[in-house]
Amino acid sequence: MRIASSLRVWLVLGRVSNLPTVWSNCLAAWLLAGGGPWERFAVVCLGATLLYTGGMFLNDAFDVQFDCKYRPERPIPSGGISRRLVWASGSGLLGLGGVLMIPFGTASAVSALGLLITIVTYDAIHKRTFLSPVLMAACRFLLYVMAASAAHSGVNGLVLWRALALAAYVAGLSCLARVESSPGAVGRWPLALLFVPVVLALAIGAESGLAVWILAVGFVVWVFWSLRGGLWQEKPNFGAGVAGLLAGIVLVDWLAVVGAGEEMSLVFAGLFLLAKLTQRLAPAT
Fold first, then answer.
1. Across 65-74, 224-233, 267-276, which has the greatest mean pLDDT?
2. Which of 81, 93, 127, 254 could covalently link to 268 via disulfide, CB atoms 3.0 to 4.6 Å apart?
3. Is residue 44 a contact partner of residue 147, using CB atoms and an 8 Å limit?
4. How far apart are CA 155 and CA 193, in angstroms?
């Protein structure tokens, strides 16, 4: 019982239900950049996992005062783990994640450093600035760049366009998520950002034929389903749909590489299901 309880503290602290979206980001960027040896990709995924998890740890370490007031069930205010241990483990994971990218070359090392700095900046100030959605979007953009820089062809125009579309989606869901812990209404304008990836996919993915249209429809349906609780309210509150939108990041990545073949489609479908299933184990936010 103690082991299970301790394990869950770490899983909740690291928001591990979002890791499938990190892996799908890496996979999409990897494929867009020409791929490469899968052993190399595995190291990239490991580095991304450590960076993400370390960032989530520090997020809680920085947010202790806020969580004590609004989210007392979080691991630190509930007494599940000490803040000092969270600081130490989060910092160590971030450092190790960055070091793993150094052997892949200057571009990978620089993008990893940029990602690390952006993660820490977000953690430190996201409760005190209206720019927090931009910082969150920048984290996912830089993750794409980091993964692509280690692949065969490196960062190219297609990688950057898809990364920008993902960043728009993440900025949109981050705007909606800002009221999740502190209840309140939010305007509907961030909804437009959620559909940037599908617009881009239909604009430049015509060669994928029917497949891109089917996935585009599925993506739109999922977004509206996730937000169904707040769409028709006079003063909408979309906080309850944030978890669904976070899992939808996998669909954004799938749209980016929809023509990559049936095997990859199965992988992305599996990652989407994994993201949803693990949300029962550890909250996504």
1. 267-276
2. 254
3. yes
4. 24
Under the banding of pLDDT at 50, 70 and 90, the label for residue 48 is very high
What's the Cα-to-Cα distance from 76 to each of 9, 57, 83, 236, 260, rounded to whole Å?
9, 10, 6, 31, 42
What are the sequence ranges of the domains in the chain?
2-278
Stretch among 26-40, 166-180, 255-269 having the lowest mean pLDDT: 166-180
CA 138 distance to own-chain centroid = 11
Pick the more confident residue, 227 or 167.
167
Closest CA to 163 of 246, 247, 55, 257: 257
Amino acid at 18: N
The C-alpha atoms of residue 187 and residue 142 are separated, in whole angstroms, by: 27
Q: How far, in Å, CA of 281 to CA of 142, rounded?
A: 28
CATH class of 2-278: mainly alpha
Q: How far is CA 162 from CA 2, 107, 130, 167, 198, in A?
A: 44, 18, 24, 9, 10
Q: Which amino acid belongs to residue 268?
A: F
Measured CA angle at 268 (ends 266, 271), to 5 deg: 110
Looking at residue 185, what DSSP letter applies? -
- How distant, in Å, are the alpha carbons of 201, 222, 256 from that of 206? 8, 21, 12
